[in-house]
Each structure stands twice: as C-alpha cells, then as structure tokens.
Design a protein that fits this description.
By secondary structure, the chain is an alpha+beta fold. The chain has four helices and five strands, in the order ααβαβββαβ. Strand 2 and strand 3 form a beta hairpin. Helix 2 runs parallel beside helix 3. The longest helix is centred in the first third of the chain and has 16 residues. It is elongated. The N and C termini lie far apart (about 50 Å).
Amino acid sequence: MDAIKECTPAQYPNKYLAKVFQALRVELNQEIDALKELLLQSAELLNAGGRLAVISYHSLEDRLVKNFMRAGNFEGIPQKNMYGHDIRPFNPITRKPIVPNEQEVELNNRARSAKLRIAEKVA
C-alpha cells in the first residue's frame, strides 16, 4: 500500500486501492486465461441442449462471457458459414444479464457487481 500511496487520489482512496489490488490478483492468478479456457472447453464438452451458466464479477469477465455466448469467440465478431448464417456454439437464454435485486445486495454486499448469463448449447 505504501508503494502506491503517492499515486492514490485523495478522494476515494479505498476504491482506488481495491481496483489496483483486484488488477494484481487477476493478473497473478491468470483469471482471464482460466475463464477463456473454461468457456472453450464448455463448448466442446456440453451436449446439445446443455446449458452454461456463468457469474461474472467485473466488466473484463462479463465482456468475455457475453461475446463468447453471442458469437462463439472472445472478440464478439460472428463467424458465418458459406450461406451467410452465424456459426456459434451457444444461443443466449438471457438477453441481458441477471443481476441481484436490492434485497440480495442488502444481504450480501459483494453480490452488487455479480452478473449471471445463461446460454444453451446448439446442436
């Protein structure tokens, strides 16, 4: 904490420090790479009609999950077959993410940033 104290803004120092330590944790644990591997494996392992449910806790994770469920890749660019139809391993069940309501956040404050996305494996 002392190493970055001079860089910390006077307003909301705890919020800033939380973001720094979150970034360090994500990088150190290679959480983004692990999430990508999980999503790729889910496309291979789930049977047609199987459902994939993922809870993400920050925007980096959520963007990867959303793009993968909609387009089948992490960039969010749909691939087309020779007839111009989208090729994707999943059909999203939820158009928008499911987020906790006020009561859930009141019971568990850490749930405030959670987003649940659900998709079904295509045949």
